[in-house]
Design goal:
Helix content: 40-55%
Shape: flat
Largest sheet: 4 strands, antiparallel
Number of helices: 11
Length: about 325
């Protein structure tokens, strides 16, 4: 009895099988790059024998869920096997070179070039991700008027402190009275002013560029250093904002500026709308798209489409009239 009991106690349940985690890769080039770096292999001198064996060993351990992804890995496997098959003789441990025929050498060089290009793209992606995370941390803290991350690094905060802070925030939200409708809400212009002020602050504090796409020429005049005017999906004029507003070089820009109120205009000067209708983008007129509405057009405007060329010292314009030296003036 004692012996049987002892045997039962020492014989426990069978250990569960070990689970092997197989690293996932974005695609076949990702796997090849991983194998090259693991073996400290030169991307310009692939060891086909070594990398093919390791590549196939990895595929044996993977359970593909996507047929298209599996196909891409198998195509690469077939390429490696084909190249390896051209190395008919067994590897010489003293020979570092792998002799291939001309066709195999071309295919190997193409594979090496693709691998080097992928390595450059992936390295750039990692750098951009790190840069994005860094800027997000700085921008988020500064905009929220919190101390900068170098003053209070997150790694120096204890988990318990963060947990208590979050709990206080939740409790504060529960105690707050539901938000009431503002008795005197801001007007659209006041909201727009707030947004423009925020864009100016971001531009100044972080040294970022701002691209505005708008029909509001007043916003362009107050916010932008350079302006590009588009008509019918094409840029028709470009240049410093001050120069474009003071001396427009395209009839569309000239007409736009005469159709809006201006502080520097004569008192009671009537606004002048642009004649006609915008063109049908599916069926644009021949030549310059603005010529049916243009009061400066010449015969060539309805026949040939102008391209952007320098007009004056600082501006570009796609207009046959101003490119010939004519100034846009008139009633």
């Amino acid at each position: 009895m004692t012996q049987e009991a002892t045997t039962q106690q020492t014989t426990g349940p069978e250990p569960a099988g070990l689970t092997v985690r197989v690293e996932s890769f974005v695609g076949p080039l990702d796997l090849l790059l991983h194998l090259c770096r693991t073996n400290e292999m030169d991307l310009s001198r692939l060891s086909l024998r070594t990398i093919t064996d390791q590549y196939l060993s990895h595929l044996e351990a993977v359970r593909f869920q996507d047929l298209e992804m599996a196909g891409s890995f198998m195509v690469m496997a077939a390429t490696l096997i084909y190249l390896k098959s051209k190395l008919l003789l067994p590897a010489d441990p003293n020979d570092q070179e792998e002799a291939l025929d001309e066709e195999g050498e071309l295919l190997k060089r193409e594979l090496e070039e693709r691998l080097r290009e992928y390595a450059r793209v992936k390295a750039l992606g990692v750098w951009l991700s790190e840069r994005e995370a860094e800027q997000t941390l700085v921008y988020g803290r500064t905009t929220a008027e919190l101390p900068p991350p170098e003053d209070i690094p997150l790694e120096d905060l204890s988990v318990h402190l963060l947990q208590r802070a979050m709990q206080r925030l939740i409790e504060d939200q529960k105690r707050r009275v539901p938000r009431q409708v503002e008795p005197n809400p801001l007007s659209v212009l006041e909201r727009m002013s707030e947004i423009l002020d925020l864009l100016r602050n971001v531009n100044r504090d972080f040294g970022t560029a701002t691209i505005l796409i708008t029909h509001n020429l007043g916003v362009v005049a107050g916010m932008c250093e350079r302006v590009m005017v588009m008509y019918a999906g094409r840029v028709v004029e470009s240049g410093p904002t001050v120069d474009v507003f003071a001396h427009p070089k395209h009839p569309y820009t000239w007409s736009l500026l005469r159709s809006i109120p201006r502080l520097d205009a004569e008192r009671h000067e009537p606004l002048k709308p642009i004649d006609g209708l915008p063109p049908d983008l599916i069926d644009l007129p021949t030549g310059c798209a603005f010529h049916p509405r243009c009061q400066f057009k010449v015969e060539r405007c309805s026949r040939d489409s102008p391209v952007l060329n320098r007009v004056g010292e600082t501006q570009l314009a796609a207009c046959w009239v101003t490119q010939s030296g004519v100034e846009l003036k008139g009633a």
